[in-house]
Amino acid sequence: MRIRIVDAFTDRPFSGNPAGVLLLDSFPDDHWLQKVAAEVNLSETAFAHPLPAGGEADWALRWFTPSTEVDMCGHATLATAHVLHTTGLATGTVRFAARCGILGATAEDDSTITMDFPTSSLTPVTAPDGLAEALGAEVVSVHGTAAHIGDLVVELRDEAAVRSLDPDFAALTHLSERGVITTAAAERPERGYDFASRCFFPRVGIDEDPVTGSAHTALAPFWSARLGRDELTGFQGGARTGIVRTRLHGDRTLLTGHAVTVIDGELHA
């Protein structure tokens, strides 16, 4: 069985966010899917199989962390679309049926892929007890996200605070939310991005996710409201980094990025 590792939201190997991708004839039992994701041991592994022609979607798509299935994942969707397009299994726009609804992924002329995701709602909330201490940083504002994401968007003082974070992951697991999306405005927009972020999900087995597509469905409306523009560019990451271009389109967020296959091999299981 063929398995690929794809670095998403980057145009060069060993950067961005790596995802496992397996194209199947159908979904085996959940236990097998979870064991494969644990073996791959990346933040997400995507499993997809083709659907009958004429339906609302072309492929069924699921995502697993090493410990659980998730409702929505951007970088592994980008990785899957990249594999489909580079192998000739899809052209133009491919539609995925996923737990969060129908997602589109369109190959662009500049070799990027643009994904069509639901925009997350944002609700101002009081910072949970111990959040600032767990992050080790001053918290400026906190917003809850839509149920299909289930994270906190935490605004910090500046980009330097985001980049220097060294969280207490054990403390973050005590939050009721799935994870924490930390963010701040770009210190120097002339570098080519408008805001910076880092994302932490220790409750689902991912201490830090390098470049999180789903988080940008919340970061896009958050920063578009502040910066007054529907089209923005986000920079994310600590040790590994990547770039996500965002555009608000009604109740949808368009996420654009590159991807590159770094491993193409066989799974013997």
TrEMBL record:
The keyword Isomerase applies. The keyword Iron does not apply. Keywords: Isomerase. InterPro entries: Phenazine_PhzF-like. Belongs to the PhzF family. PANTHER family: PHENAZINE BIOSYNTHESIS PROTEIN, PHENAZINE BIOSYNTHESIS-LIKE DOMAIN-CONTAINING PROTEIN. This is PhzF family phenazine biosynthesis protein.
